Amino acid sequence: MSSRKKILLKIIILGDSGVGKTSLMNQYVNRKFTGQYKATIGADFLTKEVVVDGKLITLQIWDTAGQERFQSLGVAFYRGADCCVLCFDVNNAKSFENLDNWRDEFLLQSAPRDPDNFPFVVLGNKIDAEDSKRIVSSKRAMAWCQSKGNIPYFETSAKEGINVDQAFLAISRNAMSRESSTEMFSELPDPIRIDVETNSNDCAC
Amino acid sequence: MGGGTPYIAVTSDINNDDSSKVKLLFAQSKVYFQQTKSASDKVCGVLVVIQKFLIPEADNTNAIYVSHVQLKGSLNHGTAINSFWLSIEQIRGLVVTWPTFMKSHGSVIFNMYNGSSMGPLFFHEDEKSVKSKDTSNQWGGVLLLHWLDRLYSIKRSKTNFNFFSLLPKTPNNNTVKYSSDTIRETDCSGSSNKQSLQMDGNRTTSNTLNKSNAGHGSHTLAAQLLSADYQKKSQSTGPFGRPSNSTQWDVFETFSYLTKSVKDLASYALEHPTGKQVTNYLPASLSEFSNNFYNNFNTNSSTHSQGNKSKFSKKSNSTGASIGPHSDSDEYESSRVYLAQWARQHVIRQQEELNLCEIENMNMPKDQNSEFGGSEVVWDDLIGESSDLDGDEFEVIDSAMSAKLSNVLRTKAPLSAETWFSYFCKDGVIDPEEKLQCDKQIVLKAIFSGGIEDDIRPIVWKYLLGVYPWTSTEKERKAIDAANEEKYYTYKAEWLDNVELQESDDFLEQNARILKDVLRTDRNLEVFATDEVGGTDESNLNSTGFPGSSASLEHLKDILLTFHYTDVPENGEENQKLGYVQGMSDLLSPLYVVIQDESSTYVCFVNFMRRMRRNFLRDQSGMGEQLETLTELIKVFNYPLYQHLEKANAENMFCSYRWLLIWFKRELEFSETLNLWEILWTDYLCTDFVILVAFGILLRHGNVIMDHLVRFDEILKYINGLNGELCLNVMIKDAEILFYRLKYRIEILDKQQKERESNMVVEGALVDLSLEDKPAVANVQVTEHKNNKSIVVSDRIRKLFYA
User: Fold this and answer.
1) Keywords in UniProt for this one (chain B) (predicted)?
2) Which helix (H) or strand (E) holds B425?
3) Which of A2, A65, A198 is nearest residue B247 as measured by Cβ atoms?
4) Structure pTM?
5) What is the pLDDT of residues A10-20, one digit of tens each?
6) Which pLDDT tens digit goes with each residue over B45-96?
7) Smallest Cα–Cα separation from B598: which of B564, B565, B556?
8) Any idea which architecture B339-361+404-413+625-764+790-802 has in CATH?
9) Which of A59, B258, B561, B567 has the highest local Cβ count within 10 Å?
10) CA-based nearest residue in chain B for residue A6
């Protein structure tokens, strides 16, 4: 029998449409980038097995449609999440300003225990674009993250694969921190004892 | 080679009679009467093909094959308790039910010319044939077919893939000859008998076994005797054939059961023809696992030592527990999805076969074209997969419905230019005004039956989308086009010239959204591919803010912006424009590709959006409504599947969201999408036909889902993975047949309800009226089940069929 408890962490990626959620997920899981992704309709997810701090974990990474019109679907998809990744495009102010909405919406719909301490990670994507196009500064992004309870912040490029692994490592760790806090509630099954002869002839069946 | 008499015999004792005069051609051990989970505790015999030398020196080549099927069952003591034999000449054909992914056994039923039948005989996958030149690991039923094929000519029925007709091989033979027409005819006329047999092959209860044998001569008695003996045996020894009262035994038993299930999984995978196909697609780890397991078990055969057993037991315990469809694990298990995708190959292969059948039918002359044909198979499969609990009803409906169903429309050849223009002809001459000369229903019927050929699609779509009235003349149509063009460019100029509007927050936001999506809509199509002369997307975006690399992309963007600009909120939308919503670009792109002209595409899109608008509402009520209808359909017409989905928290049907939002655009090839949409636009049977299409797909995959997937995320992953795996013709035909069947069932349920209300005194009338042909007593159980469930056909479902 497997002695180690299998760890599966559910990660939800949220953010405005076109900030690169699907790209980030695919870059991390499949090490691939293509400019030809279609707008995500509904939701999908990929899984990836990784070793973090000596533990084998399976990440289930959910990619959702970015338009707020579809947020009501969230109830079904957000349930049981271990970490929420908020994404914005550093070249798009609106996508940054919407982080508040995404965060609130997530907490509202997933209704996690202890929402104040639910792990979020913020990713500012598309840092590969020219400097002149950049609109949201690191400072501004970090200030927001700090104001929301020191949310870890990473600047990434799904296209170039910059910082993606580091970001997801942090995401995994944050998700695990939550997992370990809930572990004490999980029940361990009784071991099967085959060495004991029990004469249970009075069995009901 | 002398003249001989080949026998097929199933016997416990090959040496029993006159073996000196008999030549053993083929033998298959452990052929079972009783369908069971494991091969360890059944009544079984050996099936042999024997050539009997009646006339040793007779005519050399044209041997007259008088063949017999002899079946002898044996129990532990080795005594043959009964047997029967049948001449091959008596056999009209065989109904073969293959092992499936989750069933290690398949069955063969022999159908006689006199209308009786023998069987089913169950062949387990893990039994090897005793004597066979073909040493590949094939299922016994197939080996038998191969052997028969050497002696006789075996033809697979075109209308029922499980049926193989048996014909004398030599043309000079004096026995009955068959033209292909006769075969067709008999195939169809014998369908009811055949069908019930086929059902039995799929069912597991001894009840149905007995039923199928009822009144079919001596072998019936044999089957019943065997069945009774089997029951006696199981009572005395317990399911595993020995007393089970120690914990130790229980544990080993559990291990051995798990071992067995893993072994089965592995062996199905490699032995089953479907399995062979999919091994390549398996993830490395899984394929390695199955290979190892299979090899290990095979080298040890069924008699592996206790030591080996424990070794495997250990391994299988951990693996078996995690991959078992009903394991206690409450976490997502990707291996379950892998296995489901693997099992799906069976469904997909079946779809491909059905599709070939449809295409063949399509090319047949018209008089044959209208035959019920392959749809019978379609429906049988749907029943088999959908109605474990209440399947009996459908059997009865079958005979009652076959007349009504003889006019299934799908799949005909697509509407051709020739036919299309003939609709404008009167007495062989085109109407001078080029006005449609027939009822529009005739046109809609033709389109529903097969779609439209590419060359006339643009004009027919304009009719379908209401741009041209069906009664319009050529002159009127030209005027309409001109007016639409004028209108469109006026609108476009209005927002283009309105600087204030262009700088408004709303416009900027809509513009940005549309741009983002236009840039990622069907870019694989040539018409939207990057135009090298125009520069890359990025360079264009940087300089102009437009994608600009292709004029087509700009057209898409302008149409969507104009749509937003001209959009008028409908009642209940709180005076808010719909705005651009993701998915709209997917709806626009096929229109643009077909119509090509910017202004006409705009009008078509506006009209298309009238019916699709509900999919994009702010409160999502339109999507919710459709998904709930789908849920109710499943609940009313396939309760087991509903229960399963409910348990998995998937009964909200969010997994079908993408299907309905953009009408399968992401699941089908682009050309198939065009075909599906024009069929849906006809509203020929009902306006929400798309929901029935979705239901049909879920039924096709219902068994795989129920067998393998236990969680919402697993089901979602599986459903999302169906893109590219759906077969358009089969999808639509399934939906069409569902429409007729379900409508009929609703009528029955209504009738039942009415009678219940008007005739409360007669308790017996509560019997499910879909079983009206049968005496009430026989269906008590079904009735109870029904009453507990108390089927309510909601207005929502009713609307689907009676719009």
Assistant:
1) GTPase activation
2) strand B425-426
3) A198
4) 0.67
5) 999 999 999 99
6) 666 666 555 444 433 333 333 333 344 333 333 333 345 566 677 778 888 8
7) B556
8) Orthogonal Bundle (1.10)
9) A59
10) B331
